[in-house]
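Progress note, sequence design subtask.
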């Protein structure tokens, strides 16, 4: 099978100038398989078998575990675009499992850690994880760093070949607009059918050929945020289509914007297969209108991490 014949879940999207499946895989939950490496490797390999060819990870996922598992499971022949992120470091045993690492020298150290743990000479895409919106962690004064200083560090690492392209995460519209001259290829923010604060960012991504990569795609991650699967319109659509409410929530994201790439995570193969299958779901106009009419609530300043 050549590249033009490849089956890509959800159809074909673009990430950093490369064609990828619109349904990818998020590696954060691999930590749940810490005591069963073989199961974790099987899960990653199954994603590749299903046509998934972009994965989202970070050195701070499992304090390097997710990267280590991806290194073991993937080979260059798989053609998988690996996307990592910087801006936080592991904080084992702390009240929050992460600590900010926003300073330019910390961004570089994190990129170097990712290169070592992934076993790569270049990380294809690295997201700068800011603290401007969405899921936040406590930010000491010495971690309040100007965006321009951070982007200068990221661009320097891209020029050196340590990273292939720059993304940005947990940002507001003003931050994304300021970052555009650096050549942003993707944006990761908390976003779902029930938390649509960022429609302006979605539109800006569409206008500029930037991938829109929502995390917490089914809502419900924190108190006060509803779950997509609990919405009556979602449950009705699922019943009508013979699929699960979670699949409806993922499929809506794909239908809502052509810029969307999904990175749902799981530690279970059956759940992985269901997530991938969501890429095949289409909605008739009435169903899509009913889903679009679901009330969105402000996501607020929740505390945790994607």
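Output:
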């Amino acid at each position: 099978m050549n590249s033009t014949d490849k089956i890509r879940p959800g159809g074909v999207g673009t990430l950093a100038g490369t064609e990828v499946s619109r349904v990818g895989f998020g590696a954060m939950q691999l930590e749940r398989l810490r005591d069963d490496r073989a199961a974790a490797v099987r899960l990653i390999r199954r994603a590749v078998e299903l046509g998934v060819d972009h994965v989202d990870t970070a050195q701070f996922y499992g304090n390097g575990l997710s990267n280590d598992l991806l290194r073991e499971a993937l080979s260059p022949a798989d053609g998988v675009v690996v996307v990592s992120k910087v801006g936080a470091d592991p904080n084992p045993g702390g009240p929050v499992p992460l600590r900010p690492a926003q300073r330019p020298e910390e961004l570089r150290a994190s990129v170097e850690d990712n290169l070592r743990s992934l076993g790569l000479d270049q990380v294809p895409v690295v997201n700068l994880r800011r603290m401007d919106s969405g899921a936040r962690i406590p930010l000491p004064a010495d971690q309040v760093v100007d965006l321009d200083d951070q982007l200068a560090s990221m661009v320097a690492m891209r020029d050196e070949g340590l990273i292939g392209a720059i993304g940005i995460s947990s940002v507001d519209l003003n931050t994304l607009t300021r970052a555009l001259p650096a050549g942003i290829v993707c944006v990761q923010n908390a976003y779902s059918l029930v938390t649509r604060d960022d429609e302006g960012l979605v539109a800006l991504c569409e206008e500029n050929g930037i991938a829109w990569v929502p995390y917490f795609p089914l809502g419900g991650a924190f108190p006060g945020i509803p779950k997509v699967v609990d919405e009556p319109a979602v449950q009705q659509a699922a019943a009508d289509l013979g699929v699960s409410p979670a699949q409806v929530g993922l499929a809506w994201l794909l239908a809502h914007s052509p810029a969307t790439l999904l990175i749902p995570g799981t530690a279970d193969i059956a759940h992985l297969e269901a997530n991938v299958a969501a890429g095949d779901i289409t909605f008739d106009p009435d169903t899509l209108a009913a889903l679009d009419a679901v009330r969105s609530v402000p996501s607020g300043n929740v505390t945790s991490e994607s």
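Residues 121 and 263 are 24 Å apart (CA to CA). Work on this subtask will continue into the next period as scheduled.
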